[in-house]
Amino acid sequence: MNAEARPLVKALELVEEGCFRPPARCESYVGRRGGLEVRLVTCGTCTTHGVDNCGTVPAALTTFLAMEKYRPQLVLNVGTAGGFRQEGGCIGDVYLAHATAHHDRRIPLPGFDKYGVGHHHLMDANVLRKKLGLKPGVVTTGNSLDAVDVDLQLMKKNGAHVKDMECAAIAWSANLFRTPLIVIKAVTDLVDGGRPTHEEFLENLHTAADALQTKVLEALDFIEGKAISEL
Fold first, then answer.
1. pLDDT tens for residues 142-190?
2. 78 and 39 in contact (C-beta within 8 Å)?
3. Which helix (H) or strand (E) segment is 41 a member of?
4. Averaged over 25-48, what is the pLDDT?
5. In this predicted model, what pLDDT tens digit does every residue of 184-206 receive, in sequence order?
6. Catalytic: which of 27, 104, 189, 200?
7. Contacts of 38 (CB under 8 A, 6+ apart)
8. Of 4, 27, 93, 104, which is the active-site residue?
9. Catalytic: 189?
10. Sheet holding 36-42, edge to edge
11. Which residues does 112 contact at the CB level (< 8 Å), separation at least 6?
12. Active site residue 224
């Protein structure tokens, strides 16, 4: 979302390049952080409704188009997410995930059931995670901000620590290019906290975005000059 991207664009002094693969609405910003070339890509704005494109379809498409065009050595999916009180999550916590899966692709057919869950192992970046003091966990992905009972059951089955709307889709696209993916998520709301998700999300979005910005800048500084195997 633009609200998540803006603090990073400002902090990194990135230059807006605009839409890079029309008619898709994905947008690119580019700059440098020390010796790193940094390119921040968003899903852009929906021309019909005038809001941020979000969910798994724009995420998978934008990731694929960006990787096809720019061929990055490393992809970072950074953004906000819901946390789980029962897993020790709190507002403002920042996670570095080691796996992701879907909780809303229910296909009860032989073989398709596992395909629907779409479990992806993410890059093992334990050195980076410990250096930044981030929590480990699993990201569960779906296309709704809230969650119905069957979603909650599948989230628990996925071993979820955070819930978002794009991670598993981005992992699918990154895997097509065999490109390492690091996922960093800051908590805006608690899925099992008892409050309406949309209220808590809006209330804490900027707080979580600020926490995310701090950790992403620290991550980039740590990554600079290191091989992937050193992370």
1. 999 888 999 999 999 999 999 999 999 999 999 999 999 999 999 998 8
2. no
3. strand 36-42
4. 96
5. 999 998 898 888 888 888 888 88
6. 189
7. 12, 14, 30, 31, 32, 220
8. 4
9. yes
10. 15-19, 27-33, 36-42
11. none
12. no
